[in-house]
Design a protein that fits this description.
Helix Hairpins; 3 helices; alpha+beta; Elongation Factor Tu (Ef-tu), domain 3; rod-shaped; 6-stranded antiparallel beta barrel; 388 residues; conserved putative lor/sdh protein from methanococcus maripaludis s2 fold
């Protein structure tokens, strides 16, 4: 037994060692075979013609979006100049009136009596003045004859001056009473249309009570609030295209004035745009559109190609048949051929192809399978905006 153990144990150890060596060699050969085998080729991303956009040079139109409400350049609130009862009001909303046309009549009974009273006081003052003048003439003759002293003449002169002043004051009172009576007849200060009728016949109105509002729709404008950073690029005469609800065609407007001061709080600056006349326009309608700030030749890419999942916006450029991330230097946004585009200042060249945003997430280095080139004479499949 002991002899068998002395012989068998070393033999068993050699056998185990041999098995381990064989296993190690087998594993190494398998790993070498795996490494030597060709790596699986990743599937290329197949693209269609609509997935590609080209960097192109166009005339970029920089636009500034604005909104506001239409208002008449000439409008008037007709107010009562005297306190009285409204006897008649001959116009309603929508009526067309001309400047100077009678719109309303207030009760003149009180003003008629005041005018009559003032006229009678003026007549009495006139009579007193005539008496004082005759007395002055008589006293001058008496002084010349030595019947009265010069002091009495001075009293007559003072009395005549006082009577004259009293007469002038009563004449002024007559004119004021006549004006108050005339103010009871309300006339249109401007021509236009009645926008509001704020009182009804039979109401008693105080001084400065609002009776009617008149607007002249022949000249309309829009007041738009402009952010402070956009004001330096804005200029008088800039053309704008505005859209009004209910009108199919946009309206042409022009910047005619820019406010010299900013609004407290919002720090916006008011810009006034004159709108071409149109029979469908009304004061108070909401409009929105864009002002053309500038036009210049530059390289652009569609805004839809920008990707924002990194710290800085970037595009995916087609480099041969591989996708490469590119972070160009972008400039201002604008429009070209009705498409929203952004200026490329550096990092891309004219004719470079970039992937549209509709392609989705594409990793840097992804293999691409590009669409076949169009046959000679056919229309290219890649859609680009026409030069405006």
């Amino acid at each position: 037994m002991r002899r068998w153990l002395r012989v068998g144990l070393p033999a068993l150890a050699l056998l185990v060692l041999a098995l381990l060596v064989v296993r190690a060699l087998t594993t190494r050969k398998a790993e070498q075979a795996r490494l030597a085998a060709p790596a699986p080729v990743a599937a290329a991303l197949e693209l269609s013609a609509g997935d590609l956009q080209r960097v192109r040079r166009v005339e970029l139109t920089r636009m500034l979006e604005v909104s506001g409400s239409l208002r008449a350049v000439n409008s008037a609130l007709v107010k009562a100049r005297v306190a009285a009862e409204v006897r008649a009001l001959s116009v309603r909303e929508g009526d067309t009136v001309r400047a100077g046309q009678v719109l309303a009549q207030l009760d003149t009974t009180e003003f008629d009596w005041r005018l009559r009273q003032a006229e009678q006081q003026a007549q009495a003052a006139r009579a007193q003045l005539e008496i004082a003048q005759r007395q002055l003439v008589n006293n001058k003759a008496l002084v010349a004859q030595g019947f009265i002293s010069p002091t009495a003449l001075e009293s007559s002169v003072s009395g005549e001056s006082a009577a004259k002043a009293t007469h002038e004051a009563t004449r002024a009172a007559v004119e004021l009473a006549r004006k108050a009576r005339a103010d009871a007849t309300v006339t249109a200060p401007i021509g236009g249309q009645i926008a509001q009728r704020l009182v009804q016949p039979g109401e008693r109105v105080p001084v400065d009570a609002r009776l009617l509002e008149i607007v002249d729709l022949s000249r309309l404008e829009v007041e738009a609030a402009i952010a402070s950073q956009d004001v330096p690029a804005l200029r008088v005469g800039a053309v704008a295209q505005l859209q009004v609800d209910g009108l199919a065609q946009p309206l042409t407007a022009r910047v005619v004035r820019i406010s010299p001061s900013a609004q407290v709080g919002s720090r916006t600056v008011g810009a006034f745009l004159a709108v071409d006349a149109h029979p469908a326009l009304r004061q108070g309608l909401f409009v929105q559109g864009a002002i053309e700030l500038e036009r210049r030749e530059t390289l652009v890419v569609p805004v839809s190609t920008l990707r924002h999942d990194q710290a800085r916006p970037y595009v995916v450029r087609v480099d041969g048949d591989v996708a490469r991330w590119q972070q160009p230097e972008f400039g201002v946004r604008g429009q070209a051929g009705g498409q929203d585009v952004i200026e490329v200042r550096a990092g891309l060249s004219e004719g470079d192809r970039v992937l549209a945003g509709s392609v989705g997430v594409v990793r840097d280095g992804t293999a691409l399978r590009l669409p076949a080139a169009p046959a000679a004479g056919s229309v290219p499949a890649v859609a680009t905006a026409a030069k405006p």
